[in-house]
Amino acid sequence: MQVSDRFHLWQGLSKRVSDIAAAHRGCLPAAVPEPEPAAPPPKPEPSAAADTPARRHAKQLFEAVHAVSGTGRSLSAIARELGLNRRTVAKYARAASWQECVRRTPPRRSTSLDPYLEYLRQRWEEGEHTATVLHQEIVAKGYLGRYQRVKLSIAPLRRGLPIDTPRERPPSPRQVARWITTTPSRRGLHVTEALRRLLSHCPELDQAHDLVRQFAAMLDARDATPLPDWLDQLTASRLPAMASLAKAIREDQHAVVQGITTAFNSGVNEGRITDLKLQKRITAGRAGVPLLRQRVILMAHLRRRYP
């Protein structure tokens, strides 16, 4: 009796969902919430144009380089005269103003706390100023980070300053496939909201999500009765990736039914193959076949004792 492995069935479905997301890559930015319009920053006063040592130094170098660069001398000669590196001279010579040469602070990297910053700001305005309580609340919503990061993030609020919220990047097709194939109860708050925005914007991904949930229900209940109707839905979905999956399943439908309804699967064999590949990579270039054979036999013995 042939039995399809449930893991590979689910993996094949996830791959098709990733292909659909890649085909509709233009819809993926819809998962990112629209940023709130920020107030324009105040224009600095003319007198404060060079009010820091770094800015004054950049202005002096710019004036010195441009005072000599117009004489027709080479960059190497200018660098020797001013005692600067040739690349520094080239940078200041190409610049149209000294402000272009000032080292800018790189933008803050996004963190796992970013999806919860708006919630922290809202709770702060409601009067909750205890970092421990705020950390416990967002942990209940799916946050997996540490308390210290929450404490540091609300520190600007204690000084009356806003929290810096960077613009999120659109998810990748593989990330969208992981969202869709994850059980809804195990999705975090940020993933749930992002997936809701994405599915409401892209009907193809919404259709793929419904098909994935139907197949997941069959696996959970070990009931293959809806499988023929589900395959018809794949064929009629006008999604080439899903139609190809339906064709592949129909070619071996009996084994797929057995994989859904029975407890038998090839997971044990896949585990043994994984062990073999792991041992091969560990000893590659440092040992021969006799040691590999001994380690594989030992691993099989341990698997039998501690399944």
Automatic annotation (TrEMBL):
Occurrences of domain HTH IS21-type (ranges): 60-124
Pfam families: DDE_Tnp_ISL3
Transmembrane segments: none
UniProt-annotated stretches for the region Disordered: 31-56
Amino acid composition bias (Pro residues), ranges on this chain: 32-45
Descriptive protein name: Transposase
Organism: Streptomyces colonosanans
